[in-house]
Every structure is written in C-alpha cells, then in structure tokens.
Write a structure and sequence with these properties.
- Helices cover 47% and strands 10% of the residues.
- The chain has a six-stranded mixed beta sheet.
- β11 and β12 form a beta hairpin.
- The termini are far apart.
- Bound molecules: protoporphyrin IX containing FE.
- Protoporphyrin IX containing FE binds next to α10 and α14.
C-alpha cells in the first residue's frame, strides 16, 4: 500500500477569481499528483478526497455506504448525523435503496415525461411573458430560474393550484435557510431542518389528500404501491429537495455561462441535447458527493479503512484531462458523455430525464424569446453562492435586452 505523504486540511473551496465556472484551481494539482488523497474533514474526521474521474467512479461499489449516520460532511461541521427519514432513499443502501429506486423508476414513464415536457414549456412561456411585461432589467434567478423548477415539481407531485404559492414559499424557505450566509453552519442546519419539517408536513397532508382523491400525478400513482404515508411523504420531500435547487441553479448558471460565451449559442440551437451534456459537465453544480467505507477497501493504491468517509469531487472528475480534452473549455459541440454531473452508480440522479427536459426547454425558450439578452451588470459583479449540501449556484443574475 502507498501512503500519501500529506493530508489536505480541508476541501478546496475557493474558485479562481474572474472565472466563476471553474472549480478551485487546487483540484488540478491534487488530481495530477494523487487522485485519491487523505483529507481532514471539518468535524476533524481523517478521511479521503477523490478527485480523478476513474477513482470517483470506483467508489460506486457496494462496500461503500450512502447512509447519513455513517458519513462525515466534507463541507461543514454538522456533527453526528441522524439516519435518513423514511422515504429518503438517497441515503439508503441496497437492498432498501433498490426497493424504492425500482418503485420510483417505474413511475417516471415515457407518458409522464411527455406530459411534463408540455407543462415545462407552458411554465417557461408564462414566466417569459411576465418578464417581458415587466421589462428589463430583471433578476433572472427570482423571475425564471427558481419558478420554472418549483412549478415543475408542483406538476410532478400534483400540488393543487390554490396551494402553489404556499408550496413555493415552503421551497424557498428550504433553500434560503440552508444557504443563508448571515447564519453560522449549525444555525443554517437548524433552520434548514425546521424548513424541511414544514415541507414534510405539507407533503404528508398532500399524500393524505391523494389517497382520498387521486389525480394524474406521481404522488397519486405512488399511493397504489405498498409505501406507507410516512414513506410517501419522505419520497415527495426528497424529490423536492433533490430536484429543485439543483435545476434552479443549473438554469441560472447555465444562462450565465451562455451569456458569457455568446459564440456557443449556435451550437446550443443546432443540437441542444448534446450541448446540455457539456453544460452539465462544465458546471457540475452538484459538486461533491460523499460515501463511507463499510469494510477495509483497497483503492488506487491506498487502503481505505472501514468507517472512513470519502468525499467525491464530481466537479474535479468532470475536469479530468484523462477523460475530457481541454476540460476547462466550454465546447457545446463536444461529446461529453460520461460526465458525472448526475453522479454515478446506483444513486445516479433519478430525475435526470426531467432535469434535461427543464434545461432544454427553459434555456431554449429564453434564448429564443430574447435574442439580444445580455448581462445588466459586469460579469465580475455577479455573486455566486455555495451551500452546505454541495450545490453551487448564483445569488442573482440581472439581465436586460
Ligand atoms: C440539473 C439538475 C440536477 C442535478 C445536477 C442533479 C444531480 C444529482 C446527483 C449528483 C445525484 C447523486 C448524488 C449522490 O450520488 O450522492 C442525484 C441524485 C438524485 N436526484 Fe438529481 N439532480 C438534478 C435534478 C433532479 C430532479 C429534477 C429530480 C427529481 C425531481 C432529481 C432527483 C434525484 C433523486 C431522487 C436522487 C437520488 C437517487 C438515488 O439515490 O437513487 N434530481 N442528483
């Protein structure tokens, strides 16, 4: 076994000045020398950091667990974490994870995706109409990037029309509390968890309503399975958490990236499906995943001991020159298949088809409606944001046309 000489004292977090789309520069140096290296976590745990594409993929192995109670966060000192609530299968392992995953995967049907595609198109058009009525400059984050996925999730879960404003406030609270820069990490966690409970309470009521009077949506469909009300509420909240902030920030950062690379718009319109994969690779907004070894595991010339946590830098893996030529260049014509923007292995994003529909539909509608869209402030004034669950994003995106 080779033992690395040094241990990183923390996860690299500072992005290069002037390039908000690039991961911290330190990743390239670490990846080149040692794609799996020791790292001290914020709570003092001595674990590992995987930065190379091959090593990150290799951790998708049943000897590694996604259970919260076994994990140490590489992003903040969150103390010992409780087990995931019922229904949150992102933080379960096989066979429990497989049971949920199979049930859910069977519900993301071609018919449902087609229906949702039409709804996303309608939602995008409505938002763009509203933006046009107000006139520029507008903040694209609050007027477009957040409402589109929020309303899409309402469609997915079957949130009734009169509840939608309340539901959007619940979601907004979830995001802002977990991210509020004015709060210390433990306060963010505490307030985020109470916002989480409020969302969970709403979804629990929604599940009860769907049992009584099912409608044409995923949640109603799931009431026909053997999942309990508590599990169904947990699944609903997981979809909300996993599907909202991610897609919203992908739309915001994606629009920002396109505005900063206007030469790439032709490629976007020529083949949006190919272009989306490259945008997902280049931005890798869900930048870090986490797993813990359940037994001693030999990996990339090192021995990971049972109980040690590995931080998986998806954003570093997606800039690995061993897999992608000139990885720091956004090239919407490239074939970016194999990127880890949706993770890898059994937990790979369940909602990726819906996410692709939202990105393609919303960004194409935006670029088509406002061909002269441009930033209303210099790019250097756009404020980015980090959060304690590892989703990179924008605080605002003022644009005009
Ligand atoms: C651009 C938008 C999105 C990105 C970048 C993204 C990214 C990811 C990533 C990286 C993972 C794996 C996490 C891990 O391995 O620890 C994941 C899992 C997941 N995502 Fe997404 N996601 C997006 C949109 C969505 C949407 C729209 C939904 C559903 C409405 C969704 C539902 C889920 C679920 C349920 C999981 C857990 C899957 C499992 O554990 O089996 N995601 N996502």
């Amino acid at each position: 076994m080779t033992e690395p000489q040094t241990s990183l004292s923390s996860l690299p977090a500072t992005r290069p000045a002037g390039c908000p789309f690039d991961p911290p520069a330190e990743f390239a140096r670490i990846r080149g020398r040692n794609p799996l290296t020791r790292m001290v976590f914020p709570d003092g745990h001595h674990g590992w950091l995987a930065t190379g594409h091959a090593v990150v993929r290799a951790v998708a192995d049943p000897r590694f667990s996604a259970r919260t109670e076994l994990l140490h966060s590489p992003l903040a000192d969150l103390g010992p974490l409780p087990p995931a609530p019922p229904g949150n299968f992102l933080n379960l392992d096989a066979p429990e994870h497989t049971r949920y995953r199979k049930l859910l995967a069977g519900k993301f049907t071609v018919r449902r995706m087609r229906l949702l595609t039409d709804r996303v198109a309608r939602i995008s058009t409505d938002r763009l109409d509203a933006i046009e009525r107000v006139g520029g400059p507008v903040d694209l984050v609050t007027s477009f990037a957040y409402p589109v996925p929020a309303l899409t999730i309402c469609e997915l879960l079957g949130v009734p029309g009169p509840d939608r404003d309340r539901f959007r406030r619940l979601i907004a609270d979830l995001v802002t509390k977990f991210n509020d820069p004015a709060l210390a990490p433990d306060e963010r966690l505490e307030q985020g968890l109470s916002a989480f409970e409020a969302a969970q309470e709403y979804v629990r009521d929604l599940v009860a309503a769907k049992r009584g009077a099912p409608t044409d949506d995923l949640l109603s469909d799931l009431t026909g399975t053997d999942l309990t009300d508590l599990e169904l509420a947990g699944v609903g909240v997981l979809l909300l958490i996993a599907g909202f902030d991610t897609t919203a920030n992908m739309l915001a950062l994606g629009a920002f990236a396109l505005l900063c690379h206007p030469d790439q718009l032709t490629a976007w319109h020529a083949d949006p499906d190919r272009a989306i994969e490259e945008l997902l690779r280049y931005l890798t907004i869900a930048h870090t995943a986490t797993r813990s070894a359940m037994t001693d595991v030999e990996l990339a010339g090192h021995e990971i001991k049972a109980g040690e946590t590995v931080a998986l830098s998806l954003q570093s893996a997606d800039r690995d020159p061993a897999v992608f030529d000139h990885p720091d260049i956004l090239d919407l014509r490239r074939n970016a298949v194999g990127h880890l923007g949706f993770g890898y292995g059994p937990h790979q994003c369940l909602g990726q088809q819906l996410a692709r529909v939202e990105i393609r539909t919303a960004l194409t509608a935006l670029a088509t409606r406002f061909p002269t869209l441009r930033l209303a402030v210099p790019a250097s004034e756009i404020r980015t944001r980090a959060n304690i669950i590892g989703v990179y994003g924008l605080q605002h995106l003022p644009v005009t046309w």
